[in-house]
Design brief:
CATH architecture of one domain: 3-Layer(aba) Sandwich
CATH topology of one domain: Rossmann fold
Order of helices and strands: EEEHEEHEHHHEHEHEEHHHHEEH
Largest sheet: 8 strands, mixed
Number of helices: 12
CATH class of one domain: Alpha Beta
Strand content: 15-25%
Shape: globular
Distance between the termini: 33 Å
Radius of gyration: 21 Å
Structural class: alpha/beta
Helix content: 25-40%
Strand order of the largest sheet: 6-7-8-3-9-10-12-11
């Protein structure tokens, strides 16, 4: 890996919550992100996968400092983002942008397309004349596959795919270096998903973008990511190269996810989203307010033993550039008959 532009070290995001709800009951801690570390190089795409409720979106927002980390560091181009003042962080946001899951909900219905896309220019204090701003908006619209003739239309006049293109244009107008894509195609038709993913890849190549691509659709992640981070209840289960993760995963959770997606059974393949959400896994996802002791995956793991209930497994190198958090990942005898 080349010198990283982003370093995340021991990142934690914990929220105080009431167990009884409605403001009553004992105070507890929800560990949305719990001791996550990774690096990202210039022009690289890291896919972040896992079931809903595993902390993927919270992780992405914590990287951008949209959610305040409880502990750990996020270092961007050598600077610890938590150490920056509010004004310094505001300027730094020119490098750090996000594309949201719901394209229509993320756009202000009272603003025209041109106003929405130009909004980051004003937020960053980039002074342009009216004609210069319009020309810049028109240019980025063309790059994302939208006709500049649509510049004065409103979000409700566009399809879901077109709205997501507007959202991408808004993120790209300030020429960022990192874009967090938070489930950017999950609400779109299957036929549109490939178009949006290919658009992101084209923009990445043209601008040298680094991407954090969050998704539960593993087929999409395989198409765009070069490395994959597998998250479960806020903890990293496995981190490595895309082909290794898909073809020969070490962690039982990763293996269950991949085998569910790759199952030849046409019934199992009927709905890729449901499969990717973990239909091949046994049991329910535990509450992040009261996670299992030791390894958080042990209550659903087919090879769990006593040590899994006692000790939290740390990330260990399975091979250069590939790490896994499992007590029995390298014990192939324990895997026999488990899947």
């Amino acid at each position: 890996m080349s010198d990283p532009v982003l370093q995340v070290d021991g990142l934690k995001v914990h929220f105080p919550v009431r167990r009884g709800g409605l403001g009553f009951g004992a105070l507890a801690t929800l560990k949305a992100v719990d001791d996550v570390s990774f690096e990202l190089s210039r022009g690289e795409t890291l896919g972040i996968v896992g079931e809903s409720g595993c902390g993927k979106s919270t992780l992405g927002r914590a990287v951008l400092q949209l959610v305040a980390p409880t502990d750990g560091r996020v270092v961007w181009l050598g600077q610890d983002l938590a150490a920056l003042s509010r004004s310094e962080m505001r300027r730094k946001r020119r490098d750090l942008q996000i594309v949201f899951q719901d394209p229509l909900a993320s756009l202000d219905p009272r603003m025209t397309t041109g106003e929405i896309i130009a909004e980051p220019l004003r937020a960053q204090g980039i002074r342009l004349s009216r004609d210069e701003r319009r020309a810049r908006v028109a240019s980025i619209m063309e790059k994302v596959g939208l006709s500049p003739a649509l510049i004065n239309r409103y979000p409700h006049e566009f399809s879901g795919g077109q709205c997501q293109r507007i959202g991408i244009a808004r993120a790209m107008i300030v020429e960022p270096k990192l874009v967090v894509c938070d489930e950017p195609v999950s609400s779109l038709d299957v036929s549109i998903r490939a178009q949006i993913v290919n658009l992101l890849k084209d923009l990445q190549k043209e601008f040298g973008l680094s991407l954090l691509f969050i998704s539960h659709d593993l087929s999409v992640v395989r198409h765009i990511a070069s490395r994959i981070l597998v998250l479960y209840l806020g903890r990293v289960m496995e981190l490595g190269a895309r082909d290794q993760i898909f073809d020969a995963p070490f962690h039982p959770y990763t293996r269950a996810l991949m085998e569910a997606v790759l199952a030849p059974d046409p019934v199992a393949q009927r709905d890729a989203d449901e499969v990717s959400e973990g239909r091949g896994l046994k049991g329910e996802l535990p509450s992040p307010i009261d996670p299992p002791s030791g390894c958080v995956f042990r209550t659903r793991c087919p090879i769990a033993t006593e040590i899994c209930a006692k000790d939290v497994p740390g990330l260990r190198d399975a091979m250069p550039g590939h790490s896994v958090a499992c007590h029995h990942a390298f014990d192939r005898k324990a895997w026999r008959g488990s899947y």
